[in-house]
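Dear colleague,

Thank you for sharing your sequence with our group. We've completed the structure prediction you requested, and as agreed, I am returning the results in plain text so they can be pasted directly into your records. Please verify that the sequence below matches your submission; if there's any discrepancy, let me know and we will rerun it promptly.
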Amino acid sequence: MKEKKAVILLSGGLDSSTAAAIAKKEGFTPFALSFNYGQRHGRELESARDVARHLGIGQHLVISFDMGLIGGSALTSSIPVPKGGLPAPERTAGTIPATYVPARNTIFLSFALAWAETIPAADIFIGANVMDYSGYPDCRPEYLRAFEAMANLATRASVEGKIKFSVRAPLLRMTKAEIIRAGAALGLDYSLTWSCYDPEASGRPCGRCDSCLYRAKGFAEAGLPDPLLEKFG
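Please find the predicted structure tokens below.
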């Protein structure tokens, strides 16, 4: 049987790690892609490497470039990371937080597309989610459909009829609790994942940024302890 290859955007976070586990369950041979893009801290890359090993992903590529030169985000500049509480549901769709990184998913998916065309692989997995999320415009289904259409217009492999690219977002309409339950059922070790935007000097998650709060909410609603926090006591 012909090998099914897929490029997986793997940040080391809860969502992308679950998407990678789902890709493996669906019979894909995953090629993990992570980025050292000048983000506030490199802790998530440690998790990406750990998760790739845990899932038995043989090919894990880390690409480096510096979006800090562009700035415009609390994750790549000196802009403070917002803390203290999740936005009300009625505000989420219209409020884009300071942790938004300009065009980040477009840049990441472009690298993934280039690798997918080379491997070759028709499928690209991303852990985008529109349920429990921070209002990022590049996580919306209409954006992902638009990128997929562009991918099939802009690549030699597609124009020549060799590949029809598909951008797959298996978590798109799942709550954080549903994502966690799905990953747990697949045996994903969430103690290896990382979510915090602004960890303490001790290395412990801050517990107050949006990403920490969404993670805590998800584990609470899933009825499961967060194994990452258990590691810190």
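Summary note from our side: The mean pLDDT is 93.

Kind regards,
the structure core
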